[in-house]
Every structure is written in C-alpha cells, then in structure tokens.
Design goal:
By secondary structure, this protein is mostly helical. It has helices at about 15-25, 45-55, 60-75, 80-90, 95-110, 115-130, 150-155, 180-190, and strands spanning about 10, 25-30, 75, 90-95. It has a two-stranded parallel ribbon. A two-stranded antiparallel sheet has the order 2-3.
Length: about 200
C-alpha cells in the first residue's frame, strides 16, 4: 500500500507456532497451553494460510497440499525459498507468561499506559526486535478491561471499562433467537438492516 514498513513483526505467547514457523520453517501443531492472552491460544491461524498463498506465488494447489498435510499429519515444512520469502518481510518473537505480566507492569511504570496481555506481548517482542535506526510501532489489540484479572495480577490495578462502556453491565440485554436455518438467518438479517 506504499507504507514504508521495513518488517512486520509477529508476536506470540507460549503457543508459538507462528514464531517457530517463521524462524525454523516448520509449522507443527503441539497442543494449546491456556494463557492470560487467550486470543493467541491457537495452533491454526487462518491469516497464515493467506500469507502462504502469497508466499507460494498464489499457487492454490500448493497451499491446499500444505493444509491437507496439516490436517493429516499435524504439520508441514516450508521450502527454503518460501521461508526466505517470508523472512524478507516478517520477523517474529515469543513472550512467556511471566514476561507478559512483567511487561504490563513495566509499561505502566514507564509510560503510564496500561496494556492488555496481548498488547504487552507485542511491546515485549518489539523491544527485543527493535533496531535503533528504524522506528518501531506496536498496535494495541484490546482494552485492558477486557482482561481485568490478568492486568490486576500484573499491576495490582483492576482496569475500569472505558467511559462509553462504563454502564455496560447495567444495560438491558437483548437476545434474538433464530432457527438453525440459513434462510431464516438471511431473513432475520434483512429485516434488521437499515439502509
């Protein structure tokens, strides 16, 4: 898109399949370990399949073969050429549970910014990968109040909901039940779309 980005850096928790793949060329599932950063507690990333499609020069058959190997054998190996292609644009790093908690506390102490666990992983890995001559930008992924127990255990502070959501738990709950039927779902959506 023209944005002058040197490298994109993927940050993972202990469920580090993407980090292992980008550094070793092996995409092998190994079981999920629950963590304080649950959105990273995965083994199969749909976005990675899209990246593979680009790395394999949009060869859908090659990517389908990799996905079939993942399903049948629990993993696959990248060719050296594809790994080098990915490494031209991507780096990665890993952050464990204690490092995540420590980063939440360090960031709060150093800047006054309270991070969610996922954002703390990004900051931790960014600090590991940072090159003095290249600016590094990290993107926060969630508000810390979405993970209050993890943030409180790291800082002693229980984060408040953002002001526009402060009354969230007092708001009336709205539920609509729809039959497990595609046509019923389509009709439900059409009736509620405001054009």
């Amino acid at each position: 898109m023209g944005l002058p980005i040197d490298k994109l850096v993927g940050a993972t928790n202990q469920n580090d399949i993407l980090h292992r793949c980008l550094t070793q060329g092996e995409y092998k599932t190994s079981g999920v370990m629950p963590s304080i950063s649950p959105s990273m507690d995965i083994q199969v990333s749909s976005n990675f399949e899209r990246l593979l499609f680009e790395a394999y020069a949009r060869d859908g058959a090659a990517v389908s073969a990799l996905m079939a190997a993942l399903k049948a054998e629990g993993g696959f190996s990248l060719s050296q050429g594809v790994l080098e292609t990915l490494q031209r644009d991507f780096q990665s790093g890993r952050c464990g549970e204690e490092q995540t908690r420590a980063q939440i506390g360090q960031t709060l102490k150093g800047s006054g910014e309270l991070l969610c666990p996922h954002s703390a992983i990004g900051v931790h890995v960014a600090e590991q990968q940072r090159q003095p001559e290249t600016p590094m930008i990290t993107l926060a992924t969630a508000h810390p109040a979405k993970f209050p127990d993890a943030v409180e255990s790291a800082t002693g502070l229980r984060p408040d909901l953002p002001p526009h959501m402060a009354d969230l738990f007092e708001r009336p709950e709205r539920i609509a039940r729809v039959a497990n039927d595609l046509d019923a779902l389509k009709q439900f959506i059409k009736e509620r779309i405001s054009l």
